[in-house]
Amino acid sequence: MAPKKNSAKRPQPSTPKPSAPARIVKVQSSDGHILQADVRALLLSSTLAATIKGYDDENKPLEKLEVNNVVGFTLKLVLEWCEKHKEDDPAIAQAEKDKKNIFIPSWDRHFLTKLPMGNLFDLITAAYHLDITGLINYGCKTVANSAKGKSTEEMRELFGIPEPWEQPSTSTATWDD
Amino acid sequence: MSSLLEMPDLVMKLVLGKLDYVSVQRLRKTCRTLRNFIDDVKPESNLSAFRILFTPKYLRFFIWFKDLENLQIEYITVDNGCRIVPEGGEYQWFFENSDFLDIAFGDAKILLDFTNSGKIQKFSFDSMCPPETSRNPRPWFLDRLHGYLKFRKNLLKIKCLDFAFLDQQEILDVLPFLEPRTLENLRLEFVGDKIKRQSFRTRKLSKIKILNSPQMENFEFHFRQSDAFDKLTEIFGEISFSDTQYMNGYKRHWFFAYSENSDNLLEITFFENYKYYAFDINKKPKIAETLNSGSQAKTSGHEPLDPRFTTFCAR
User: Where is the F-box domain (chain B) (predicted)?
Assistant: First the structure.
């Protein structure tokens, strides 16, 4: 039997610590939708982590987090992603930030490619506002992968770029098709 | 629905950073906003090797990227314009009243413009033009390249340069604009008809920093000349070791210690069939390997060299 390759490529999520019960808080989107999330998942967002720490430092009860720049539909996707990745080591996402070729795990590939491009852009923009490095990485790589092999015209259609371009300039002719 | 154009700049930069070079260039042509943004960011091309082949009727680019993707493109001059043929692609383009050199240079310039922090492993200029041809595209191309390199915001980083040249000016147009700290291997090949001593100004060449760089591991100077062998034997004496068989002729070697204090050895090789000469300066260990591997050549010790042969030495 062939040995399993790349089994050590990504660290496997560790089993949740049985001693720490999930701490659930409410999260409110910019259009008033209220969702629920595990604090450990929210900590993937540097922005939300700072807010949560602020509450904890002052021993104030955290009842509801308001996310003013993300709508409910997108926030739900963000929270779903965070829930799936709450055990991840943040150092991995940081290391992948500037890499050209990164490996997108199958769950994420399925999760991101099923979205229409416009929703994917919204999700990446939300991840940017909330500062979730791992989601930004996978999102950007998914956009890049979808552009690969496409002609200029196909890219315009795929990415919702309305402006028709002028006549191709001869100096860059070869890179177009 | 959001458009790519509405993404925050930082996100756009990350997307561009994860795209391959050709996709970036296609995206660059979708609209003005993206073109300006991409020209501003200049995402790294990840160019690994670039070979330009000059012939009187066409130029061929061989381009390799670090992710193992590669491209081959031919720019062909035809009666009323230029035809562009990428290898393996189903598309071809024709540009009426356009010069094939203009288009080829434009593509090369953009590729080099997007190669800023990265080091190009190998850059080669090959020529298949007879020296006397009136339609030799090399001088024109190298002149434009010189103009580009001169005003580039940083020196081009090349690890290994293979440069076929016709006169000294071509060397002077390119070499001084390369980063001396990255060049490790330099191969100059004279592709003209006959090398003339008066056409080489050694003082000018000696000012090129790159030739004195401590990073240089290997320096080669190759040329073809029918009457040079007699002169070589005049200077160095008759060769006293058995010659190596090479392509139904002889390949003859001389080895010289370059100087008392240098690690380098000068190797002169003469290919009888082709009247072809190779002057190579190597670090000693590399030569030692050659000697140990059964070559019949031998080191001739600290012999003084005729100054004309040290002109191009790396140290």
Answer: 1-53
Of residues A102, A144, A173, nearest to B103 (C-beta): A173
Asked, for residue A14, whether it belongs to a domain, the answer is: no
B97 touches chain A (CB under 8 A): no
- B239 — contact with chain A (CB < 8 Å)? no
Q: Tens digit of pLDDT for each residue in B16-50?
A: 999 999 999 999 988 888 999 999 999 999 999 99
Which residues of chain B lie closer than 8 angstroms to A116, CB-CB?
1
B17, B29, B109: residue with CB nearest A176? B29
Complex ipTM: 0.79
**Domain enclosing residue B54, as ranges:** 45-216
Å between B69 CA and nearest CA of chain A: 12
**Structural domains in chain B (count):** 3
CATH code (residue A126): 3.30.710.10
Is the pTM here over 0.90, yes or no?
no
Per-residue pLDDT tens digits for B170-196? 888 888 899 988 988 888 888 777 666
* B121 and B152 both lie in a single domain: yes
Tokens of A110: 């399925």
- B78 lies in the same domain as B118: yes
Q: How confident is the prediction for chain A on average, in pLDDT?
A: 82
Q: Is A162 exposed, middle or buried (0-12, 13-18, 19+ CB in 10 A)?
A: exposed
Q: How many domains does chain A have?
A: 1
Helix (H, G, I), strand (E, B) or coil at A26: strand
**CB-CB under 8 Å, B22 with A100:** no
Residue-level pLDDT at B197: 63
Chain B neighbors of A177, CB-CB under 8 A:
26, 89, 91
Helix (H) or strand (E) holding A153: helix A152-159
Distance from CA of B163 to the nearest CA of A (A): 25
Cβ atoms of B58 and B77 closer than 8 Å? yes
Nearest-by-Cβ selection for B26 from A136, A144, A152? A152
* pLDDT of B265 above 80: no
Contacts of B310 (CB under 8 A, 6+ apart): none
Angle between helices A72-84 and A133-147 in degrees, nearest 10: 110
